[in-house]
Amino acid sequence: MALVFAKIAPPKQPPTIKPNSSSPLSPKSIFLHLNRNPNFAVPKSPLLSLLRANRTANGGIGSSNLGKLFVASDPLSSVAESVLVILASLALSLSLFLADVDSAAAFVVTPSRKLQQDELATVRLFKENTPSVVYITNLAVRQDAFTLDVLEVPQGSGSGFVWDTDGHIVTNYHVIRGASDLRVTLADQSTFEAIVVGFDQDKDVALLRISASKEKLRPIPVGVSADLLVGQKVYAIGNPFGLDHTLTTGVISGLRREISSAATGRPIQDVIQTDAAINPGNSGGPLLDSSGNLIGINTAIYSPSGASSGVGFSIPVDTVSGIVEQLVKFGKVTRPILGIKFAPDQSVEQLGFSGVLVLDAPANGPAGKAGLQPTKRDSFGRLILGDIITSVNGKKVTNGSDLYRILDQCKVGEKVIVEVIRGEQKEKIPVILEPKPDET
Predict the structure, then answer these.
(1) What is the secondary structure of 326-365 as a DSSP string?
(2) Could you tell me if 159 and 142 are in contact, meaning their C-beta atoms sit under 8 angstroms apart?
(3) Which is catalytic among the residues 33, 157, 168, 174?
(4) pTM above 0.85, yes or no
(5) What is the enclosing helix (H) or strand (E) of 378?
(6) Domain named PDZ: which ranges (predicted)?
């Protein structure tokens, strides 16, 4: 019998996955090795150990043993490979979450805040129009009582907005009144010295100019105020209490209101009434519609406490546009006047009359030249009433507001017929209107 010596092969070592720069570990490669080689040696890693334990317990990765099923089929289809990759990725993510809390925390993503369409529109409106709104500081000269040094100290502040790329800034007149120096701060916090181009005290509008490059200036889109409706949404942007840009919202609560100018007491007609919060510092800022167009200048509030708990008023943009156009061209507003001083409305009512009582009519003024009689006293000290104006060009005049409203519709150089009560008689006197004297 011949002896046959067989060569005994050494025990086969289980394959080892060794990651390197050229062939990094991938979910697919790990998945295939786990199913083809049950006893393969893996690097010491809690992630791979969990995968191996999961495979041993369930007969493959995942409870359905899809891994072994797909590996056994030969050749692997592209669909099977895609499923394997997805399952391996899910297993890796699950094992990472279970093995290391800190690592799992890195996968926690805070869901983005979902805004409604109207909220997104409001946010977009604020972002697009904020660069057009400026902060105005009113500086006044003061002398120190001890050192006698002359200092410039802030005496007030307000808001304004960029009108054009030539550096024109629109604001309220009462924001700049009494200033020895004015400074305008743009949205990018750059500050410029401002000069006064002109102002209209009667309508509480002022126009400034700064020397800023056109790249820094973002003119506000100008709308119209003639077609506004009560109830439509409005947005006010300004710098209340010296804070950074602030947005308040509301609706138009009234139209064609009338307020008095803070400087001259002359009525401002067709004012927009809004319930949007307007605080000190909002004056001169823009009032916008839902499209982001300028419809007015925030100018005043009516509130017993002086805060925004009352009603806000804005000068309509149609009025502002006409004033700014004249200020840019001529540096002043040419508004016709009669050239009289008249008594308060309450005094005329107490006398039992309806109209405007002329207190003074300077001889060099239009009314004085036409022969209107002022109120005066005789040689015995008795009061002799002047002419009482009852109509102009056939339009009834019952108080000072009516007179101003009629004159605002007239032009300089126009001849008007003024009807007055003089003593016991009515007279009609022609008067040629003249421009208002220059103001400094």
Answers:
(1) HHHHHSS---EE---EE--HHHHHHTT--SEEEEE--TTS
(2) no
(3) 174
(4) no
(5) none
(6) 327-399
Residue 117 has pLDDT above 90, yes or no: no
Q: Which residues pair with 238 in a beta bridge?
A: 246
Q: Round to whole Å and give the CA distance between 208 and 211.
A: 10
Rounded distance between C-alpha atoms, residue 313 and residue 296, angstroms: 9
Catalytic residue among 159, 261, 283, 308: 283
Q: What backbone phi and psi angles, to 5 degrees, belong to 419?
A: -95, 130
Q: Which 8-state DSSP code applies to residue 373?
A: P
Class of domain 336-435: mainly beta
- Reference 320, options 204, 159, 165; nearest CA is 204
| Annotation marks residue 204 as catalytic | yes
The structure tokens 């007609």 sit at 269
Identity of the amino acid at 395: K
pLDDT higher for 20 or 340? 340
Report how far residue 336's alpha carbon sits from residue 406's, in angstroms, rounded to the nearest whole number.
Answer: 10
Beta bridge partners, 419, equal 391, 428
Q: Give the C-alpha separation, 426 to 419, whole Å.
A: 7
**Domain boundaries, given as residue ranges, for the chain:** 27-102, 126-330, 336-435
Out of 95, 132, 168, 204, which one is annotated catalytic? 204
Encode pLDDT of 5-20 as tens digits.
444 455 555 454 444 4
Helical ranges in 232-384 per DSSP H: 317-330, 345-350, 366-370
